[in-house]
Design brief:
408 residues, 7 helices, 3 domains, Rossmann fold, Elongation Factor Tu (Ef-tu), domain 3, 34% strand, globular, alpha+beta, seven-stranded antiparallel sheet
Length: 408
């Protein structure tokens, strides 16, 4: 069955957890004991019925504060498709968690409270979704019951979001008026929107085209080298090393001419084992390749570059300044790097770029150049998410402080 990965995003209290709880409940994807536990907790807190936000707000701190802190993943299926949902936090303090949850998504569902419209954090999440290569956004205008299901209000928010999506180059978007609390237009159509003739949220998610994750030329970052066992073997295949990893593009096949990067050695694949994306391969020649190297199509290799120009989302209280020494983790290789130039910074409210930038602060987005200690084989992020992205690590604390999407 087809699998669609989608992330919910938006500002605090726009109803992301409730929406996911509603999807799971109305598609009959919750076990009876989960429903009973939610009912008991709802009653203990003075509520009535089911507070469906409790389905995903699993951490004690989240339940006490009524906000999502961590990324909650949930799974459900319909007769048409299987789904993986990432319920990402809306609070600005946990923007890094939102980036984590959305980084593997095919679709981003941006929730907006109909009373408040697009707020800074919902704009930031829409921008981040576009930067992360999500090519389809869904505007879910939630809490429509609190504005009397006003078509005028829905159209105002839709118009604002269309402008934002167009500015960020998102090729496809849809807008759906809904109420996660009572389920209107989530799984079943709402009787309160006779003026809306589009699909429900679930209908839309069931019919969206799913991107092909293994498309493009071969890219296989080496994660492990498996050496032959001591003592040898009568089978020549058992005497060769295996090179294992997770395929980032293409499909390796026996007979493929490949290049090992960054060394540039060319060889041929003679054996492939495993189930995509996790595979291991053997080569016709004994070569020097190790963890961090990349096996790529010899006819269409990535660029091997000594420096990176990337859009960076900064995730640390300490700002990123020119000259900062960091670690960069790209695919399976981690190496030293220096941030040399901060080219510009994006204002997520106005979508204007400011070229007069001294540093990147917490949750700010900008274009940065890095010089790396070794050349890296990279693709532009728009072509390959794995080969076009990296994380920035503090070399002292080993904390993840930034995420980069390569432009060149």
């Amino acid at each position: 069955m087809e699998l669609l990965r989608f992330a919910t995003a938006g500002s605090v209290d726009d109803g992301k957890s409730t929406l996911i709880g509603r999807l799971l409940y109305d598609t009959k994807s919750l076990f009876d004991d989960v429903i009973d536990a939610v009912a008991i907790t709802t009653a203990r807190r003075g509520g009535e019925g089911l507070d469906l936000a409790l389905v995903t707000d699993g951490l004690r701190a989240e339940r006490e504060q009524g906000i999502t802190i961590d990324v909650a993943y949930r799974y459900f299926s319909t007769p048409k498709r299987s789904f993986v949902i990432a319920d990402t936090p809306g609070h600005v303090q946990y923007t890094r968690n939102m980036v984590t949850g959305a980084s593997t998504a095919d679709v981003a569902v941006i929730l907006v409270d109909a009373r408040h419209g697009l707020r800074e954090q919902s704009r930031r999440h829409a921008c981040l979704s576009a930067l992360l290569g999500i090519r389809h956004l869904v505007l879910a205008v939630n809490k429509m019951d609190l504005v009397d299901w006003s078509r005028t209000r829905f159209d105002e928010i839709h118009h604002d979001f269309q402008a934002l999506a167009a500015e960020r180059g998102v090729p496809a978007m849809a807008a759906i008026p809904l109420c996660a609390l009572d389920g209107g237009n989530v799984v079943d159509p709402s009787p309160h929107t006779p003026w809306y003739h589009g699909p429900t949220l679930l209908d839309h998610l069931e019919t969206l085209p799913i991107p092909q994750r293994m498309s493009g030329p071969l890219r296989l970052p080496i994660q492990m080298v498996i050496k032959p066992r001591p003592g040898g073997s009568d089978n020549a295949m058992h005497e060769r090393r295996w090179y294992a990893g997770s395929v980032a593009g293409g499909v390796p096949a026996v007979g493929d001419r490949v290049v090992i990067l960054p060394s540039g050695v060319i060889t041929q694949i003679v054996a492939v084992e495993g189930n995509l994306p996790a595979v291991r391969v053997q080569f016709a020649d004994e070569i020097d390749a190790s963890r961090g190297d990349v096996i790529a199509s010899a006819d269409d290799p990535p660029n091997t570059v000594p420096s990176l120009v990337a859009t960076v989302v900064w995730m640390h209280d300490k700002p990123l300044l020119p000259g900062a020494h960091v670690l960069v983790k790209h695919a399976t290789r981690t190496l030293k790097a220096v941030a040399t130039v901060l080219h510009d910074k994006l204002d997520v409210t106005t979508l204007a770029s400011d070229s007069q930038v001294a540093g990147l602060g917490l949750n700010e987005i900008g274009t940065v150049s890095f010089i790396t200690s070794l050349p890296l084989p990279v693709d532009p992020y728009v072509q390959n998410r794995t080969m076009g992205s990296f994380i920035v690590i503090d070399p002292v604390t080993n904390a993840t402080v930034g995420a980069g999407m390569i432009n060149q």
